[in-house]
Records
---
Amino acid sequence: MSGRLATSLAPAAGFISWSIAFVALYGLVSVGCLLDWQDVRWGPLSLLRALLAGLWIGAIAAAALIVMASWRRMQAAGSETAKASPFLRKLEIAANGAALVSTIWIGLPILMARQCV
């Protein structure tokens, strides 16, 4: 990927990760409910809740890595992103930070709600 394209997509990276997590989580709920995974015990959790929690934690980790990468790019002297305007650098961190919060938010029902109705 060229440097200019990477710089252009950097503010959207967090929400791209969020959208993949959103579709994966709710797709997994649909498949898990269809296959009755909520009734299969896996330790103290149902198999479905354990799979959802694992996927959610992985999505949070990915979003956090994107935020850290944005922060490092902002701090890096001489990189193409560092040459961008201060507004664009702050926009990238803010957008990716918002995506991290959104990723945490979409997974909260995993902890509280019944998966299948």
Note: DSSP finds five helices and two strands in the chain.
---
Amino acid sequence: MGGTSIRDIREEAAEEADVKRRTGQASREDAVRVPSADETAESVRRAQRALQELKQRQAADSRRAEDDARDEASRRNADLSQHLNGHELLVDSTFG
């Protein structure tokens, strides 16, 4: 390491792992467990279900946002119509 006396932590970890392997002191967390086919299939089913639920929620949120936007546009249109009708009455009574 470029002239420093500090050891790289990766080197230390590798040496510790080698010592554990040679002396048979590897801990349970160092061991790799491969899930069974049934466990893997169940995990995939849960993930697919979660994705399906997420898509359904997103679609419902999208529909709700579209409905809200349509309602807001209708309210604004109604307010504008009322406002314009008020001005037409004022113009008619002034010039009529």
Note: The mean pLDDT is 82.
---
Amino acid sequence: MDRFLLSMQKLEPFIQIFITTRLHIDLRDYFPSVCRLQIQANRSDIERYLRSKIHTNKRLRDFCIDATELEQEIVTGVIEKADGM
């Protein structure tokens, strides 16, 4: 990854780059003039996305129809583990 970032650093004056990373990765060592924008999903965003996926995926939908509490368990479990990612 370091080699890739160093290559991108050399191109910075000539191109515009949009990079996404996890919170613990800081690219300012490679791109000192970087504009940092922190974006995190909130609970309702994650819940809406998961419910949409469950309802549009036949296999997941069938599982949740047979086990009425399963959908809520899936949503709750993923939201707890996501921690705003």
Note: The CA atoms of residues 4 and 14 lie 16 Å apart.
---
Amino acid sequence: MIDCEGCGACCRYTSEMAVHPDDAFLDNHRDLTYWVADPNSRAGKGYHMLKQAPDDGATGWVCSAQSDDGWSCTVNDTKPRKCQTFEVGGAQCLEFREWQGVGS
């Protein structure tokens, strides 16, 4: 069985991630996102993107909600819906863990 606590491999293998406008994450952690205006909208529409922080490791970037040690989430109880629904033990999870050198 895979234990997520202290892993963070999926958060260290991030690409830009949009946060859905009705995601409860934005209620408490809007500061961890940035706004991207839709260039095709005249009404000022757009979307929030999860910020990334520089990483000295192999990935180059990590989720801005990562802890200082880089292996746990600081907003685990209120993380974005996309993170909450990430399939633990799924193909992508196993790929990220292997890439980061995290055992099972």
Note: Helices lie at 9-12, 25-29, 81-84, 91-100.
